[in-house]
Design brief:
By secondary structure, this protein is α+β, with helices and mostly antiparallel strands. The chain has one domain: NADH Oxidase (3-Layer(aba) Sandwich), CATH 3.40.109. Helices cover about 45% and strands about 10% of the residues. It is built from 9 helices and 4 strands; from the N terminus they run ααβααβααααβαβ. It has a 4-stranded antiparallel sheet with strand order 1-2-4-3, with helices on both faces. Helix 5 packs antiparallel against helix 6.
Length: about 260
């Protein structure tokens, strides 16, 4: 069977099938409905087995090109925890949480992950289409490489503009800021998986954006092209831990039909 080497516009032939299991939609809806941002937690610890399961579920989140541009730092030592409470501006949710997990997006791991993907293809029991090899070996490096001083990115911006005059084309990333946004989007999806998992196992969470990013990076020893997306506090909700009924603006304001 001849192959189209563009994996984006034509579905390659994979000798693989995975059947979806039956899901209890009502139970899932309960998880979504009961997930609240909890500000005060009980002192009850979260078992390691559950934290590890929830972190594992975070790693199952959808992400761009399966390049997994994320890291999760579980704060365990007393020293790091005390420093992290301070870095989170002494928020009650941070100080009372049984767990603090720092969610990090990376823009400097995609190249290594793309190479590992090709290695995995080579070891696969069933044949992987050439289109997949081409995608990770050629398209991914071209799309995500910005070059010194983003010179390649500027070249791509011009190229995409010219090609886009005649047909639809992916126009980003062409700057390091675009690349950071790319990584943060996938990492935020993983954070949501993590929070929903805590709720499914009977625990709660609070995603915090109020923190000193420089101090957080120092505490966890973070270097390189990485961004702290949020710090998630988790534990058992305490009485008064939810500050009021859930409030959302009318759905018609946000959900549009074109």
């Amino acid at each position: 069977m001849p192959e189209n080497k563009n994996i984006l516009s034509s579905a390659p032939y994979f000798d693989y099938e995975e059947h979806a299991p039956e899901i209890n939609a009502e139970e899932f809806q309960k998880v979504v409905d009961s997930r609240r941002s909890v500000r005060i937690f009980e002192k009850t610890p979260v078992p390691d087995s559950i934290v590890e399961k929830c972190l594992g579920n975070a790693l199952l989140a959808p992400n761009s090109s399966n390049l997994q541009p994320w890291e999760f730092y579980r704060i365990k030592s007393e020293k790091a925890r005390a420093e992290m409470n301070m870095a989170c501006l002494n928020q009650v949710s941070a100080k009372t949480a049984a767990e603090l997990i720092v969610i990090v997006a990376r823009t400097d791991t995609w190249r290594g992950h793309a190479k590992e993907t090709i290695t995995a293809f080579n070891k696969a029991k069933k044949r992987v289409p050439e289109a997949a090899y081409s995608y990770y070996g050629k398209i991914v490096p071209f799309v995500y490489t910005q070059g010194i001083f983003s010179l390649l990115g500027h070249f791509k911006r011009i190229l995409y503009f010219l090609k886009g005059l005649n047909k639809p084309i992916i126009r980003e990333p062409v700057t390091n800021s675009h690349l950071r946004l790319w990584a943060v989007k996938s990492t935020a999806l993983a954070a949501e998986n993590l929070m929903l998992s805590f709720r499914a196992y009977g625990y709660d969470s609070c995603p915090m954006e109020g923190f000193d990013s420089k101090r957080v990076k120092k505490i966890i020893g973070l270097h390189g092209k990485a961004s702290v997306v949020m710090v998630i506090a988790a534990g058992k909700r305490s009485k008064g831990g939810i500050y009021g009924e859930r409030m959302r603006f009318p759905s018609s304001r946000f959900i549009k039909t074109v």
